[in-house]
Amino acid sequence: MHCPFCRHPDSRVIDSRTSDDGLSIRRRRQCPQCGGRFTTVETASLNVIKRSGVIEPFSREKVISGVRKACQGRPVTEADLAVLAQTVEESIRQTGSSQLDANEIGLAILGPLRELDEVAYLRFASVYQAFESLEDFEGAIDQLRADHPRTAPVPVEGQTTG
Q1: Is the Cβ–Cβ distance between 8 and 34 less than 8 Å?
Q2: pLDDT tens for residues 113-124?
Q3: Cβ-Cβ contacts under 8 Å for 5 (sequence gap 6 or more)
Q4: N or C: which end of the chain has fewer CB within 10 A?
Q5: Taking a C-beta distance cutoff of 8 angstroms, is the pair 19, 41 a contact?
Q6: pTM for the full model?
Q7: Is residue 46 within 8 Å of residue 96, measured between CB atoms?
Q8: What average pLDDT does the segment 54-65 reach?
C-alpha cells in the first residue's frame, strides 16, 4: 500500500478492526518513511456475470433501482430498499462465491422482496420470471395464499354472511 502523503511503496499496519456489518476490515497504517497515518478499508470483491457475458462489480444501487420500479406506489421507503439490498448482498456473500450470475441475484431478491411487499414481489417476479399469461400470475398468487392462509372474517353481531 503506497503512502498517500509521500508515495512510499510500503506501510505498516498498526490496527485492524472488522466493520460493524462484518463485510470489511478497517486498517490503520503508518508510513515508515514520513510517519503519516492513514486508514484503508478492505472488502472482498463480488462480481456479477451478466447474460451478455460481461463481468461487473456487484452494486447495491443496481439492486435498489431494479426493485424500486416494482415498489412504485407501494408503502415501501428508501430505507426499506436499502435494508433489502443489504440483505441480498449478505445472502450472496454467504454462498462463498466471488462471481455470480445475474440470475442468482434475481433469485436472491425474490425472498426478501416477498417479505417486504407481496404486490411488489408479484410485479418483480412477473418481469424476472417472464410471466406470459394470467395462469402464471394465478399460480404465483395461489402460492402466496398457500404460504399465508387467511382466517375467515369474524361476523359482526347483527350482520349476516353471504
Answers
A1: yes
A2: 999 999 999 999
A3: 31, 34, 36, 38
A4: C
A5: yes
A6: 0.65
A7: no
A8: 93
